């Protein structure tokens, strides 16, 4: 056919007889072609006439394309109207606003214009050695992309009618016209010739749909698409790199501007550029729910691309591709119109794999859970494209399918949940990511084991989630656990330093793992106990675990017992006494440590007192320790005074410490239980005046109970003046209760530098009261 038409001086295109105002349509096209600038008309009747003309069967037929593709001069006749082919194309270019928005014409007409307008530029054709003529229009893949929606009586002709226009050697691919070859076999040959002979292709005898399975990679994405020339038969595509970090050895970003022929399926912004393994050219595809639709099967890129470091050849960029990480399921559907494709969200109407797919494809889909597998593969690609919301939606469906098929704790289900957690992490939805990772780790420990690679991988993912949020403590915990699980029982020695670090910095979960994995190598030394004592968050739990698991091996030294008494709760001390009581000596240092125990001082002290009976004397040192204990010191002192008053060694210093550091309840108990041994000395009164919180109440108690012994000295006044919280109330109490009857026996030092800065009003009031109270006995020193 190409040989015949290539010899013709002129090819006449017969569009049919006059109908639907076609004469006016042809004449309007001729007028538009003669205008110097774009011709614009909005007449509704005229628009209907032109659209009706363009919808005539000739424009949709496949075989007629070869006629105009071979011609060097085209005349178009419709009824009595006759117009030059080039003029026809020029007129339509000016009137494209009539049809460019119509889905059935917007890509159909430009592809036909491309062939007609080129007629006047074609040379004489040469016949090859085989006697065949090649019009050499463009590669077969591009011809298929432009014209596969054209109509043919036999499906075979959708391929054979384009062979004469192809610049490829199609006979080598087994595509020479042969109508005895079944359609599905011919379609498979075509796909493999365009992509790769080893690719998996499924076709049907009564469908124009191919299902392609292949490994591949995403090269880029269509960031913009626009008309390439005034004729509308080419499109300019701006491509930007995507997913290159895993697919290309060339990691730098790149961009390119490609010009392609107007395809049967319109390209849209957001379409993906992919390269299938073994394919010579990239394809343009579009994401659907559980597969990808082929928009263009073979795109010829421009020779150069722009990278961050300059211009490089496209061929050089492709050579860097060494990895094809993704599994693609592509549907190349010739049957759907562009409009149908645009709104298609599911491919179920195109492929019924259970009943119509070839057996080898059907088996593969069954093994991989069919739709769940396809959704999984699409989700992985969307993840790499940073389309996280789309990936999440598909993964949720995958998880439901896996739970239904295998159960909630199956490895397949857990893999899917783990991937969803990674998506949440990348979306910075930290709480959701953490919850899912923790869930997966716990289930994998139960099902696969704590040291399984999948479990360790999930733990690593959780650790990186903590790190991304700045939770370094949690990250370090997981890292040390991963280390212990990975090492197993290897020959690497676990040092005391390592055990100390774990006891000091981590919770009982890490210590438990250490004991389970390397327990035979671990000694519970005094340093380990001290380290657990320094563990402010989990010290009690760690020490309880050590005593329960290795209580017989804990080195019992006074230092270890002191640390336990000072830093842990009563349960730890009780367990220690139960397991190793015969070796534990309750010394003054141990009791002092218990008095200093912030959280559980009273409870631990009670255990020790019950254990020792009256053997340990309650010294001033012990009281000082309780005094410094701002949380449970009062309870400790009350316990000692109530339970062990005979063992409390009463000294002036002890009474002063109580007067200065505790409230009136403690002082009252002391006076009631030990009153006969207590003297209210100047030091005790000074201490009461210095009591920050309860100075007034303690001083009032001393005045009420032992008023005759209370002496107001210079140092008492100084202590009250230096008491920034309750000093004012103490002074007021002294003035009110004692007045002029109180003997001030020493000079009051009035130097401002000897006491803290007070309010001037308060200072003036104090001085006035002192002078008014005992002016005769008060000697003011001047410096």
From TrEMBL:
It comes from the Eukaryota. InterPro entries: DUF7104, HET, HetReg/Transcr_Mod, TPR-like_helical_dom_sf. It holds the Pfam family DUF7104. Residues 1-67 form the Heterokaryon incompatibility domain. PANTHER family: ANKYRIN REPEAT DOMAIN-CONTAINING PROTEIN 39 HOMOLOG-RELATED, HETEROKARYON INCOMPATIBILITY DOMAIN-CONTAINING PROTEIN. This is Heterokaryon incompatibility domain-containing protein.
């Amino acid at each position: 056919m190409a040989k015949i038409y290539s010899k013709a001086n002129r090819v006449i295109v017969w569009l049919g007889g006059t109908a639907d105002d076609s004469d006016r349509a042809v004449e309007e096209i001729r007028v538009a072609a003669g205008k110097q600038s774009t011709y614009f008309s909005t007449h509704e009747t005229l628009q209907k006439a032109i659209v009706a003309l363009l919808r005539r069967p000739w424009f949709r037929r496949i075989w007629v394309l070869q006629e105009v593709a071979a011609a060097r001069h085209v005349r178009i006749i419709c009824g009595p109207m006759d117009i030059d082919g080039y003029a026809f194309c020029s007129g339509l270019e000016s009137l494209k606003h009539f049809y460019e928005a119509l889905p059935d014409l917007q890509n159909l007409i430009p592809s036909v214009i491309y062939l007609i307008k080129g007629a006047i530029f074609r040379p004489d054709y040469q016949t090859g050695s085989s006697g065949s003529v090649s019009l050499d229009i463009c590669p077969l893949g591009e011809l298929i992309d432009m014209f596969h929606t054209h109509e043919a009586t036999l499906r075979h002709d959708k391929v054979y009618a384009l062979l004469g226009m192809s610049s490829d050697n199609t006979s080598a691919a087994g595509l020479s016209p042969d109508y005895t070859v079944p359609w599905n076999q011919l379609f498979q040959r075509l796909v493999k010739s365009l992509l790769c002979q080893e690719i998996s292709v499924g076709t049907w005898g009564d469908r124009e749909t191919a299902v392609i399975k292949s490994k591949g990679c995403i090269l880029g994405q269509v960031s913009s698409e626009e008309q390439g020339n005034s004729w509308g038969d080419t499109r300019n595509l701006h491509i930007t790199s995507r997913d290159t970090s895993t697919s290309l050895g060339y990691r730098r970003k790149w961009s390119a501007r490609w010009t392609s022929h107007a395809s049967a399926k319109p390209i849209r912004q957001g379409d993906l550029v992919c390269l299938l393994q073994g394919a010579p050219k990239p394809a343009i595809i579009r994401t659907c729910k559980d597969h990808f639709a082929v928009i263009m099967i073979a795109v010829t890129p421009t020779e150069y691309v722009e990278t961050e470091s300059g211009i490089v050849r496209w061929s050089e960029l492709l050579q860097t591709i060494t990895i094809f990480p993704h599994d693609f399921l592509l549907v190349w559907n010739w049957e759907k119109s562009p409009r149908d494709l645009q709104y298609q969200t599911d491919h179920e109407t195109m492929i019924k794999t259970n009943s119509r797919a070839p057996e080898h494809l059907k088996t593969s889909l069954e093994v991989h859970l069919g739709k769940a597998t396809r959704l999984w593969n699409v989700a992985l690609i969307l993840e790499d494209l940073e389309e996280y919301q789309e990936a999440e939606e598909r993964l949720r469906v995958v998880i439901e399918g896996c739970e239904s098929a295998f159960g909630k704790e199956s490895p397949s289900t857990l893999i899917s949940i783990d991937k969803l957690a990674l998506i949440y992490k990348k979306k910075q939805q930290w709480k959701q990511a953490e919850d899912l990772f923790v869930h997966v780790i716990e289930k994998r420990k139960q099902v696969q084991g704590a040291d399984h690679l999948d479990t360790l991988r999930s733990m690593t993912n959780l650790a990186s989630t903590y790190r991304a949020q700045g939770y370094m403590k949690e990250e370090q915990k997981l890292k040390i656990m991963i280390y212990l699980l990975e090492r197993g029982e290897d020959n690497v020695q676990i040092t005391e330093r390592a055990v100390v670090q774990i006891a000091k910095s981590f919770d009982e979960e890490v210590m438990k793992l250490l004991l389970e994995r390397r327990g035979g190598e671990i000694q519970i030394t005094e340093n380990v106990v001290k380290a657990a004592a320094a563990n402010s968050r989990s010290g009690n739990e760690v020490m309880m675990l050590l005593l329960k698991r290795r209580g017989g091996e804990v080195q019992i030294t006074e230092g270890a017992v002191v640390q336990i008494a000072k830093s842990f709760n009563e349960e730890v001390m009780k367990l220690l006494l139960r397991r190793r009581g015969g070796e534990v000596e309750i010394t003054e240092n141990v009791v002092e440590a218990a008095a200093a125990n912030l959280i559980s001082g009273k409870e631990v002290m009670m255990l020790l007192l019950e254990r020792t009976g009256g053997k340990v004397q309650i010294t001033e040192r012990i009281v000082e320790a309780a005094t410094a204990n701002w949380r449970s010191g009062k309870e400790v002192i009350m316990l000692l005074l109530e339970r062990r008053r005979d063992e409390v060694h009463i000294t002036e210093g002890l009474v002063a410490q109580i007067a200065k550091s505790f409230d009136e309840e403690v002082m009252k108990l002391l006076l009631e239980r030990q009153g006969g041994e207590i003297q209210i000395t100047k030091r005790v009164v000074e201490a009461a005046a210095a009591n920050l919180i309860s100075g007034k109440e303690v001083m009032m108690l001393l005045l009420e109970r032992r008023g005759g012994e209370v002496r107001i000295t210079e140092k008492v006044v100084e202590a009250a003046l230096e008491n920034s919280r309750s000093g004012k109330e103490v002074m007021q109490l002294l003035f009110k209760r004692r007045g002029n009857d109180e003997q001030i026996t020493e000079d009051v030092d009035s130097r401002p530098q000897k006491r803290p800065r007070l309010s001037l009003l308060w200072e003036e009031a104090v001085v006035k009261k002192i002078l008014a109270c005992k002016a005769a006995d008060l000697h003011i020193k001047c410096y």
